[in-house]
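Async update (no meeting this week)

Hi team, since we skipped the sync, here's where things stand on the single-chain job. The sequence we agreed to prioritize is pasted below, unchanged from the tracker. I ran it this morning and attached the output directly underneath so nobody has to dig for it. Comments welcome in thread, and please keep replies under the output.
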Amino acid sequence: MQNNSDIVRRFITEVLNGGNIDSAGEFFRDDMVEQVPFPGQGPGLSGLKDVLRGMRTAFPDMQWTIEEQIAEGGKVVTRFEWTGTHRGDFLGVPATGRSVKVWGIVIDRLEAGKIKDTRIIMDTLGLMMQLGVVPPPGM
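Output:
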Protein backbone atom coordinates (compact mmCIF):
# COMPACT_ATOMS: atom_id res chain seq x y z
CA MET A 1 0.00 0.00 0.00
CA GLN A 2 1.27 3.47 -0.91
CA ASN A 3 1.67 6.19 1.65
CA ASN A 4 0.02 9.55 1.11
CA SER A 5 3.17 11.35 -0.05
CA ASP A 6 3.71 8.66 -2.72
CA ILE A 7 0.18 9.25 -4.01
CA VAL A 8 0.81 12.99 -4.34
CA ARG A 9 4.18 12.38 -6.02
CA ARG A 10 2.58 9.99 -8.54
CA PHE A 11 -0.09 12.62 -9.32
CA ILE A 12 2.60 15.18 -10.05
CA THR A 13 4.57 12.74 -12.21
CA GLU A 14 1.71 11.18 -14.16
CA VAL A 15 -0.84 13.99 -14.42
CA LEU A 16 0.94 17.33 -14.08
CA ASN A 17 4.21 16.39 -15.76
CA GLY A 18 2.95 13.56 -17.96
CA GLY A 19 -0.11 15.45 -19.15
CA ASN A 20 -2.43 12.51 -18.49
CA ILE A 21 -5.28 14.69 -17.18
CA ASP A 22 -7.89 11.94 -17.55
CA SER A 23 -6.11 9.83 -14.93
CA ALA A 24 -6.58 12.52 -12.24
CA GLY A 25 -9.46 10.42 -10.89
CA GLU A 26 -6.93 7.82 -9.75
CA PHE A 27 -5.62 10.40 -7.27
CA PHE A 28 -8.64 12.60 -6.44
CA ARG A 29 -12.10 11.74 -5.19
CA ASP A 30 -14.97 12.73 -7.51
CA ASP A 31 -16.32 15.02 -4.77
CA MET A 32 -12.93 16.64 -4.09
CA VAL A 33 -12.94 20.25 -2.91
CA GLU A 34 -10.53 22.92 -4.13
CA GLN A 35 -10.25 25.23 -1.11
CA VAL A 36 -8.72 28.05 -3.19
CA PRO A 37 -10.20 27.56 -6.68
CA PHE A 38 -8.87 29.19 -9.83
CA PRO A 39 -11.15 31.91 -11.24
CA GLY A 40 -14.09 30.18 -12.90
CA GLN A 41 -13.15 26.71 -11.64
CA GLY A 42 -16.12 24.39 -11.41
CA PRO A 43 -16.73 21.98 -8.53
CA GLY A 44 -15.27 18.54 -7.95
CA LEU A 45 -12.98 16.43 -10.04
CA SER A 46 -14.40 17.70 -13.33
CA GLY A 47 -13.61 21.31 -12.34
CA LEU A 48 -10.06 20.31 -11.44
CA LYS A 49 -9.60 18.52 -14.76
CA ASP A 50 -10.81 21.62 -16.63
CA VAL A 51 -8.21 23.78 -14.83
CA LEU A 52 -5.46 21.24 -15.50
CA ARG A 53 -6.38 21.04 -19.19
CA GLY A 54 -6.29 24.85 -19.36
CA MET A 55 -2.86 24.96 -17.74
CA ARG A 56 -1.52 22.23 -20.04
CA THR A 57 -2.87 24.09 -23.09
CA ALA A 58 -1.38 27.40 -21.94
CA PHE A 59 1.94 25.82 -20.89
CA PRO A 60 2.32 22.63 -22.98
CA ASP A 61 5.85 22.00 -21.67
CA MET A 62 4.82 22.53 -18.03
CA GLN A 63 7.00 20.59 -15.55
CA TRP A 64 6.55 20.47 -11.79
CA THR A 65 9.37 19.80 -9.33
CA ILE A 66 8.88 18.87 -5.69
CA GLU A 67 11.26 20.99 -3.64
CA GLU A 68 10.12 19.74 -0.24
CA GLN A 69 7.35 17.52 1.11
CA ILE A 70 6.01 16.84 4.60
CA ALA A 71 3.36 14.23 5.38
CA GLU A 72 1.56 13.77 8.68
CA GLY A 73 -1.62 11.82 9.25
CA GLY A 74 -3.91 12.36 6.28
CA LYS A 75 -2.22 15.55 5.09
CA VAL A 76 0.63 16.13 2.65
CA VAL A 77 2.26 19.54 2.24
CA THR A 78 4.31 19.99 -0.92
CA ARG A 79 6.50 22.98 -1.73
CA PHE A 80 6.89 23.02 -5.50
CA GLU A 81 8.15 24.93 -8.47
CA TRP A 82 6.80 24.65 -11.99
CA THR A 83 8.21 25.89 -15.24
CA GLY A 84 6.73 26.27 -18.68
CA THR A 85 6.47 28.32 -21.83
CA HIS A 86 3.33 30.43 -22.27
CA ARG A 87 1.86 29.17 -25.57
CA GLY A 88 -1.89 29.71 -25.04
CA ASP A 89 -4.42 31.84 -23.16
CA PHE A 90 -4.13 31.63 -19.37
CA LEU A 91 -6.33 33.56 -16.93
CA GLY A 92 -7.27 35.89 -19.77
CA VAL A 93 -3.69 36.52 -20.87
CA PRO A 94 -2.99 35.66 -24.52
CA ALA A 95 0.12 33.61 -25.32
CA THR A 96 3.34 35.56 -24.85
CA GLY A 97 5.94 32.89 -25.68
CA ARG A 98 7.68 33.72 -22.40
CA SER A 99 9.21 31.11 -20.12
CA VAL A 100 8.06 31.17 -16.51
CA LYS A 101 9.15 29.71 -13.18
CA VAL A 102 6.46 29.70 -10.47
CA TRP A 103 6.74 28.62 -6.84
CA GLY A 104 4.00 27.53 -4.50
CA ILE A 105 2.77 25.28 -1.73
CA VAL A 106 -0.13 22.85 -1.83
CA ILE A 107 -1.81 21.19 1.14
CA ASP A 108 -3.63 17.97 0.25
CA ARG A 109 -5.89 16.01 2.62
CA LEU A 110 -6.41 12.39 1.69
CA GLU A 111 -9.20 9.95 2.56
CA ALA A 112 -9.00 6.26 1.65
CA GLY A 113 -5.99 6.75 -0.60
CA LYS A 114 -7.35 9.68 -2.64
CA ILE A 115 -7.16 13.45 -2.26
CA LYS A 116 -10.40 14.77 -0.76
CA ASP A 117 -9.48 18.43 -0.52
CA THR A 118 -6.60 20.57 -1.66
CA ARG A 119 -5.41 24.12 -1.10
CA ILE A 120 -2.84 25.63 -3.45
CA ILE A 121 -1.01 28.85 -2.72
CA MET A 122 0.92 29.92 -5.79
CA ASP A 123 2.92 33.02 -6.73
CA THR A 124 0.38 34.29 -9.23
CA LEU A 125 1.67 37.87 -8.97
CA GLY A 126 5.17 36.66 -9.90
CA LEU A 127 3.67 34.69 -12.79
CA MET A 128 1.85 37.78 -14.06
CA MET A 129 5.07 39.83 -13.83
CA GLN A 130 6.92 37.15 -15.82
CA LEU A 131 4.18 37.26 -18.46
CA GLY A 132 4.51 41.04 -18.67
CA VAL A 133 0.97 41.71 -17.46
CA VAL A 134 2.07 43.42 -14.22
CA PRO A 135 5.17 45.60 -14.14
CA PRO A 136 7.87 44.60 -11.66
CA PRO A 137 8.28 46.85 -8.59
CA GLY A 138 9.97 50.17 -9.29
CA MET A 139 8.91 50.30 -12.93
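Quick observations from my side:
The mean pLDDT is 96.
The chain has one domain: 4-130.
Reply here if anything looks off.
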